[in-house]
Amino acid sequence: MSVFLPRVPWVAALALAVSLPLGAQIVGQQQNTAAAPTATSAAASDAASAARLKSSTEFVLGKWDELQAEAHGGQNYAEGALLHFRAAIAANPSSAYLASQLADLLSRLGRAPQALELAKKTVQQHPQSIIAHKTLGEIYLRELGRAPQPITDASSGGAMSAAIANYQDLLRLDPHDATYIVVLGKLYGAEGNAAAAEQQFRAALAIAPTNMDAVASLVQSLASQNRLDEAQKEIDALPLVARGAQVYITLGDAYANRHRYADAAKAYQQAVAADPQDADLQKALASALMEAGEYPAALKAYTQLRQEAPEDGRAALRLGQLQMQMGQLDAARVSLDAAAKLLPSSDLEVAYAKALLDQSQHHDQAAVAGLQALIKRKTQPATQSIFLAQLARLEMQLGQNAPALAHAQQLAGLGSAYRDQALRLEIEIYAGQREFTPALTATESALKLQPDSRSLQLTRANLLAATGQTAAAQAAVRKLMHGGSQDWDLYLALGGIEMQARQWPQALRDSQQAGKLAASPAGRARAERQIGLIQAKQTHYAAAEHSYRQSLSLEPENADTLNALAYVLAQQGVRLPEALRYVQQALAQDAHNGAYLDSLGWIYYKMKRLPDAITNLEQAVHFDRHDPAILDHLAQAYEGDGKLQQAASSWTQALADLDGDPDAANATQRKDIQKKLDAVKVRLAQEQR
Choosing a second label site near 104 at 20 to 30 A (CA), which of 153, 296, 382, 668? Predict the structure, then answer.
């Protein structure tokens, strides 16, 4: 193990002294005079030569020990190098180079106070020495590397200002060295002076247009100022030789850090083109494509990675996660099993992915067991909170309300930082079971922790509406309004509340107002979709279809709108192949969405494809066990397929979920389901005779 601290990564390493002429490095040779040597001068010359020989010999021996210490470790070699360097300096005390070498060695051995003292003294004695300033600069950079971020004079003990002053001195001595200019720019950037940093990087590029470090640093500086598109233009303007992989990596990383994954993927593609053999670049590209939602391209990239690096467990894991996202569950199982063999058994990510896959494939008990095992590992609270929340949601989905709530309480027990998350999970569990009163109580508790939370206030309003308190819900939303475009989503919430109460004119008016106020195409698309839903609930199907298409013109790939359009066509029993295409597009984005699976099953039912209808409707119920509409659709499919007992069970569950619901609008639905249940019970009784 090396006894050295790391060298400064972005300053060129000093050349070994033994590779350079002694006169150029160690000893400032005295100019020969024209006078003939006297006996005294000859003796002095002999002494000077002996001193030079002694100094150079000790220095070479010190360098040898230094190299051995770097290669093999061992304190003895390091101490030997120090002794030889000191002996070399004793024989030639005026050498700035020797003193700088000793200071650098002391710094890399972690003896910062001694190193700084010697380096500063050397600069004072040799103010025109480039090597002395350069060594002092490297020592400062090592010290700054240990300072807490962001780096200030206070956090670095004054090292930041001293380092900047030193590199300014270096540039006065050697104004044409782009390396020093880049370092100075990085120092300005580290202290938060982005404008000064950018100026230095541009100055470096003016001297050395193909300096990769200067280009990458300029891109980072522009990114820190949120000028990424300008950074792209800067790269495009560079000579081809300067557009190396590192430049595009820097740009890609900057885009990814700002969640602009599509742009990040483009940058990484250019990096891969510049260096196609770098597997890490291919991983970065695949990851960016996946985050950007470009799943087919990401699948191709990860598949290629698996072929080229079959022993890369992390690539197998990412491929499995992507295949899960795309609904390719059997292929995901193969990939995740491979990842589990390649990665350590302690790898949490593999175990979590396999639990999620079990859940997706309806292996519910295996999923529960997997999540419970992860919770028992006693990980950090942040990781533990993910496992607990996922397990609680799975238990909620399985109708296991008590353990779900218990795990929400366990989440709260992780600390005060998780109390709000636990309460929100509690709200979700109660609301998912259509237990709106306790959900409202949990929301009130959460609001005590976060009284200014807009999302919680809107959740409270929606729960007030769900418990039949429409006027109170409307008042709660209006209380949040300030006037102007920022209220667009509040008008949308009002429209949703009024739609639930079947206050059609008000619902339509407020939803239209939301569309007028929305500043973005996505906001206007949401408003148009809600208008379509209001129209569909009144069976104004032609108007609803028009509104959904308007929404899609603003946001063409929105899965919720595609599903809504598919469902309104299915309700009419018209253009069913077209409806099927729409819902399949929605499911391609979210394969486990209960509402989308319900639409798919309902379309199949309308197409008389009863086995397909039942399969998809059963999956929909698996993801949303307490939706009366989904249960009604499943019961109708069961009845059509002659499975009368299953139909009766589904309708009975639907009625149970409607019981106690204060929404008068569901009275018709309840009456219709009861009529179907009574009829199927008669048929069952007749079959039993």
Answer: 153
